[in-house]
Specification:
alpha/beta; 15% strand; single chain
Length: 186
């Protein structure tokens, strides 16, 4: 079992890279908005009930996938490195797969802010993430998140191996997916 945690700030390209990686491997993509979009019609993601339900659905999917005979899973996540709770969560979900003999791969994406602001408006992104369609709110959320949290790691901060960090500002999602596949021998 392979579990790839594909992380980075909003609109860095996690979902799109994950889609391309799923196409060239036997891994399934579970992008973070799949659960957010499921819960949002009932409870705001920012509410206690919304957060609890999103976490619950993700947990159940992780556990079932880790027990399965499938090749693996790609999961996208916005990791706030300044929040211990995010570090704890990444450790928790990694252990689900590692405890069953799986390998966990960390893939960090980074891109320039100007590029991310453009990607935030991309029709492909908006098709898969209805809660991002209010562009004024989405852009403000992206900017405020960057002010309030550190969404990329510092050099040497991530000790987990295997790990790769890619600046994809000027790279296509297909190129990044191929880089990940080659780096980890997927």
């Amino acid at each position: 079992m392979k579990f790839i945690i594909l992380f980075g700030p909003q609109a860095v390209g996690k979902m799109t890279v994950g889609q391309e990686l799923a196409k060239i491997t036997d891994l399934k993509l579970f992008h973070n908005h799949m659960t957010i979009e499921l819960v949002t019609p009932f409870f705001s993601y920012g509410s206690p009930a919304g957060k609890r339900l999103v976490r619950l659905f993700r947990q159940e999917i992780f556990e079932e996938m880790a027990k399965s005979d499938q090749e693996g899973l790609i999961f996208t996540f916005v990791w706030a490195f300044d929040l211990q709770s995010d570090w704890d969560y990444i450790g928790e979900i990694s252990r689900i797969f590692e405890s069953r003999g799986g390998t966990v791969y960390y893939v960090e994406l980074e891109a320039d802010m100007a590029e991310r602001l453009e990607r935030n408006k991309n029709p492909h992104r908006l098709t898969h993430k209805p809660t991002k369609r209010n562009l004024e709110f989405s852009e403000r959320d992206l900017l405020v998140s960057m002010e309030n949290h550190r969404l990329n790691s510092r050099e040497g901060e991530i000790k987990h191996a295997p790990y790769i960090r890619i600046n994809n500002t000027h790279l296509s999602p297909k190129t990044v997916a191929r880089m990940i596949k080659e780096q980890f021998g997927l």
